[in-house]
Design a protein that fits this description.
Number of helices: 2
Shape: globular
Largest sheet: 5 strands, antiparallel
Strand content: 35-45%
Distance between the termini: 51 Å
Number of strands: 11
Radius of gyration: 19 Å
Mean pLDDT: 87
Order of helices and strands: HEEEEEEEEHEEE
Low-confidence stretches: none
Helix content: under 10%
Structural class: mainly beta
Length: 162
């Protein structure tokens, strides 16, 4: 039994030989020019903006992620781009940690496929009243009581790949 366990552990330590998810010649860009305020504490100093937020893109690409400062206050964002829309929870799940958390929300996970856009398209991020958003990133609450009452979560940046 011990030999079998040692063999299984040794095999599990060898990474799987798989192709990378992205093999193209694309570049990541973090858009944050819309952020007019700053959040500062002993660890972070980041630009932030309360929705609504809008960003127009000058190249074809993919919406990769939203960088969000989440809080315990119920908040949800509606993200609209290229004729598609997703409501995302921006509320921390851990009620024992009362400080804001910097989180990165995967847009392809939220939409269920790559979120592509064309030159000139604009992404719009607004507060959402959805009490059961269609997407909750790991560590975020799926069910909210009143996301419009006192939302405190803010947008830090929009990560694109083009």
């Amino acid at each position: 039994m011990v030999v079998a366990q040692q063999r299984a552990v040794a095999e599990a330590r060898v990474p799987a030989d798989i192709l990378p998810i992205y093999a193209g010649n694309k570049r990541l860009h973090l858009h944050h020019g819309f952020a007019i305020d700053r959040f500062r504490n002993s660890v972070l100093d980041v630009p932030v903006a309360m929705p609504p937020v809008s960003q127009t893109f000058d190249l074809d690409g993919e919406l990769a992620a939203l960088v969000v400062l989440t809080t315990l206050n119920d908040a949800a964002f509606e993200v609209r781009l290229a004729g598609q829309s997703v409501h995302m929870s921006a509320t921390q799940r851990n009620g024992t940690f009362a400080k804001p958390l910097l989180k990165v929300f995967s847009c392809s996970r939220a939409l269920g496929k790559p979120w592509l856009y064309a030159t000139g398209d604009s992404v719009e991020i607004r507060q959402s009243s959805a009490c059961e958003p269609t997407y909750a990133e790991v560590g975020c609450r799926q069910k909210l009581k009143n996301p419009m009452q006192d939302p405190q979560s803010k947008v830090v940046g929009i990560l694109t790949e083009a």
